[in-house]
Amino acid sequence: MARRAAGGSGGSGAKASGTGVKAARRPEVRLPALEPYGGGELEPDGDYDGLEFQELDFVGQDGGGARFMDCALTGCALDETSLHRARVLDSVLTGIRGVGTDLAESTLRDVELIDARLGGVQLHGSVLERVLIRGGKIDYLNLRKAHLKDVVFEGCVLVEPDFGGARLERVEFVDCVLKGADLTSATLTDVDLRAAAELDIARGVGRLAGAVISPVQLMDLAPALAAEMGVRVVGGDQD
């Protein structure tokens, strides 16, 4: 089994910063010696333990309900791959790519997702706990009604991510670009947005209670906040 040390800026205790926001616990996955995957298509409810998946094509395959434990997936193609209700545990996914990957209602725990290139990935209703998403670009990420706890987005680009109705607890955005984010009906607790490289919220800006932002970000978001509150901002010289 992979050994994991909860580290990151918050340490094992996820200590609060000077602002009172609790830092996320980052995964540190140390994989054991892995066996190369023997090939063949993914199987529904398959059990994959201690395997290395290298540059494999899983396009259109059905691995719904599968369990990946202590695995490494590197450079794999996941276009239209069904991984509905899959469990990905103590694993590292590097350079995966795909459009329309279905991970709805899945569980990702102690996972590192590095340099992914994904579009329209479905993670609605999923549970992400101690997950690091570093580098890469994800377009139209669907996290509606998902539960994110101890999740770090670092150095990645998220285009129109949908957090509608999701719960975010101890989530950090570090050098991360958010374009057109949707926070409609989301619940945020100890969410740190101060280090985001770009913060653009298209909907649900009023749901930022429970998050911490920088003064510059506040100024940038002021028009959206005013519109959300129904406040009209006009010049002082109006007749």
Automatic annotation (TrEMBL):
Residues 1-41 are annotated as: Disordered. It comes from the Bacteria. Gene3D superfamilies: E3 ubiquitin-protein ligase SopA (2.160.20.80). Coiled coil: none annotated. Signal peptide: none annotated. InterPro entries: 5peptide_repeat (IPR001646), Pentapeptide-BTB/POZ_domain (IPR051082). This is Pentapeptide repeat protein.
